[in-house]
Design goal:
- With about 475 residues, the protein is of the alpha/beta class.
- The protein has three domains: about 180 residues, inorganic pyrophosphatase (n-terminal core), CATH 3.90.1640.30; about 150 residues, no CATH class; about 120 residues, Diaminopimelate Epimerase, Chain A, domain 1.
- Helix content is about 40%, strand content about 15%.
- The strands form four sheets. A six-stranded mixed β-sheet has the order 10-11-12-13-15-14.
- The two termini are about 30 Å apart.
- Manganese (II) ion binds next to loops.
- The site of manganese (II) ion (MN) has 6 residues, from loops.
C-alpha cells in the first residue's frame, strides 16, 4: 500500500518532468559519496537519453553557504539527489520561482515542498536507511521517465551498498531493484564476502580485510603469508600472486575452513559467506566487477575530490576506468595510514574507549573526507561490541571539524545516531546531516573541547537502555 503511494508519487513527478521544455537547463546537485554519485550517474544517463541540457554539481554537504549560491543560479529546474530533505523550508522561501525535484532518503524537517516534488521514502513509512537509498529513488524516478532506464538498475544497487543497506541481502524496495538488475547485467553468487576477492591477490585480500576483521591476520602481511603457508596454499606461482578464483577447489576449501577457525570467537563468523554481486560484463580482475568494490571505488573518487571519474565509471567510460587504478592506490595509502594511526593511538589521549561510546579525535591526522569511511570500517571491524556508538572528529581546511557517528556492527537496537548527535550538539553551532545509522556534522574548531565534554556528559546521563 505505502509502496504503491510512493511509486505513484514518483510517477507524478516523472510525468511532470517529462513535460518540461527541452530548452530548459536541468541543474543537478548531488552528494559526493557512492550513493550520491550513482544517483548523479542514473540521472545523467536518463537526461542524456532525453537529449536534455544539464549540468551537475557534486558537493560534500548542502551547507547554508552552498544553498545561498544555488539560489542565485539562473536555472529554473533543479534536481537534488541524496540531499535536500532538510532544506525544504529554504526552497519554499528562497527559490519560489524555481521548480525543484528532491530525490532523497534522509530525514525530513518539513514535508511540504511548494514548488516541485519531494520524493523521499520516509514520507511513505518506508525505511530510508535500510530499504532504499537515494540511488534507488533516482533509479525509480528515471525508470518512470522512460522504462528503458530499467537497464541501469545495477547502478542503484551500487548506491545502496555504499549506504550500508546490504546486510547479507537486501530488504524492501532494494529487493525489487535487485530483481530488475538481475534481468540485465547483474549476477548474484554465493561466495566469500571478502573485499576485493576478485580483483586482488589472496594475501592482500586477507591483509586488508576489515569486514570481518580477522584476528591475527588483518593488517599483518607477514602473518598472512605464514598463515597461507601453514595451511598449504600455494599463493604464488609463475611469478604471479594468485587470486581467490584461481585456487583449486581443495585449496579454496582449506582456506575457508581455516578462516572459519580464525573467526571462531567472532559472533558473525558465518558473515564471510553470503551473496556477492557481480557484473557479468566485467572481467574477473576488473575493479568494477564486484559491486562492493565498485561502490568503494566511487567513495574513493568522491573523497579524493574526483567525482567525475566516479560518475564516468558508472557510465562505463573508458578513460575513467583507466584512472580507477591510480585512484585506488592513492586511496589505499590514505586509508592504511588512517587505520594505522587509529590502532597506534587506541587508549591514548586522542581516542577514548568507554563502555557506551568510542570517541576518536583524529584532528589533522586523517583527511576530513575520509573520517566517515574510516569510522565505518572501524565500526564493522568486529573489535567493539555490537551497538556501540562511534564518534569521530577530523579537522577540515576551513577551520572546522567534521564529525562522523556510526554504530558498531549491525544496528540491532534501532538506535538513531542522528538524534543522538543532535542532542549532543544542542547549544553548539553546527550543521547536521545523515540518518539513523550514519550521521555527520560540521562544527567550528573553537568548539572542539566543549564538544568532547558534551559527548562524555551525554553518555553518562543517557544509559544505552534509554536510547532503545
Ligand atoms: Mn544516501
Amino acid at each position: 500500500m505505502t509502496l504503491d503511494l510512493f511509486l505513484d508519487n514518483i510517477k507524478k513527478a516523472a510525468s511532470d518532468f517529462n513535460n518540461i521544455d527541452k530548452k530548459e537547463h536541468i541543474r543537478v546537485i548531488s552528494n559526493y559519496d557512492s550513493d550520491g554519485l550513482t544517483s548523479a550517474a542514473l540521472l545523467t544517463k536518463a537526461l542524456k537519453n532525453q537529449d536534455r541540457i544539464f549540468s551537475i554539481r557534486i558537493i560534500k554537504q548542502l551547507t547554508n553557504k552552498i544553498l545561498k549560491e544555488i539560489s542565485l543560479e539562473q536555472y529554473n529546474i533543479f534536481i537534488f539527489a541524496d540531499l535536500g530533505s532538510s532544506s525544504v523550508d529554504f526552497f519554499n522561501e528562497n527559490m519560489k520561482d524555481k521548480k525543484i525535484f528532491i530525490l532523497d532518503h534522509h530525514q525530513i524537517k518539513s514535508s511540504s515542498l511548494k514548488n516541485g516534488f519531494f520524493i523521499n521514502p520516509l514520507l511513505f513509512d518506508i525505511d530510508g536507511s535500510k530499504e532504499i537509498s537515494a540511488a534507488g529513488v533516482s533509479y525509480l524516478f528515471t525508470k518512470s521517465l522512460d522504462s528503458k532506464n530499467e537497464e541501469n538498475a545495477h547502478i542503484a544497487i551500487i548506491g545502496a551498498i555504499g549506504d550500508s543497506q546490504e546486510n547479507k541481502g537486501f530488504i524492501g524496495v532494494n529487493n525489487l531493484i535487485l530483481e530488475d538488475a538481475k534481468k540485465y547485467n547483474l549476477e548474484v553468487r554465493n561466495g566469500l564476502r571478502l573485499f576485493g576477492a576478485y580483483s586482488r591477490p589472496i594475501h592482500k585480500v586477507l591483509q586488508f580485510s576489515t569486514d570481518p576483521y580477522i584476528p591475527g591476520i588483518t593488517g599483518d602481511e607477514q602473518a598472512v603469508i605464514s598463515f597461507l603457508e601453514e595451511i598449504g596454499i600455494n599463493f604464488y606461482s609463475n611469478g604471479k600472486y594468485k587470486k581467490l578464483h584461481e585456487l583449486t577447489e581443495i585449496e579454496f576449501q582449506k582456506l575457508t575452513s581455516a578462516l572459519l577457525m580464525k573467526l571462531s570467537n567472532h559472533e558473525n563468523q558465518e558473515d564471510i559467506f553470503g551473496p556477492v554481486y557481480l557484473l557479468k560484463t566485467e572481467s574477473d580482475d576488473s575493479l568494477t566487477k564486484d559491486l562492493k568494490e565498485f561502490s568503494t571505488l566511487l567513495n574513493c573518487a568522491g573523497r579524493l575530490n574526483k567525482p567525475s571519474i566516479g560518475i564516468g565509471l558508472c557510465l562505463n567510460d573508458k578513460y575513467s576506468k583507466e584512472k580507477a587504478q591510480e585512484l585506488i592506490i592513492e586511496y589505499r595509502k590514505e586509508i592504511t595510514n588512517g587505520l594505522e594511526w587509529f590502532y597506534n593511538n587506541r587508549n591514548k589521549e586522542n581516542i577514548i574507549e568507554h563502555e557506551n561510546f568510542i570517541l576518536i579525535n583524529a584532528q589533522g591526522f586523517i583527511r576530513d573526507s575520509l573520517i566517515g569511511t574510516l569510522t565505518s570500517m572501524i565500526s564493522r571491524s568486529g573489535i567493539f561490541n555490537e551497538g556501540l556508538i562511534l564518534i569521530s572528529m577530523a579537522y577540515n581546511l576551513d577551520g572546522n571539524i567534521k564529525i562522523s557517528t556510526r554504530i558498531s556492527s549491525y544496528n540491532i537496537n534501532n538506535i538513531n545516531v542522528k538524534e543522538i548527535l543532535e542532542s549532543i550538539l544542542n547549544g553548539i553551532n553546527a550543521e547536521i546531516g545523515g540518518h539513523n545509522e550514519a550521521a555527520g556534522a560540521i562544527i567550528s574548531q573553537a568548539d572542539e573541547d566543549i564538544f568532547i565534554k558534551k559527548v562524555k556528559e551525554y553518555f553518562t546521563k543517557n544509559i544505552i537502555e534509554n536510547m532503545r
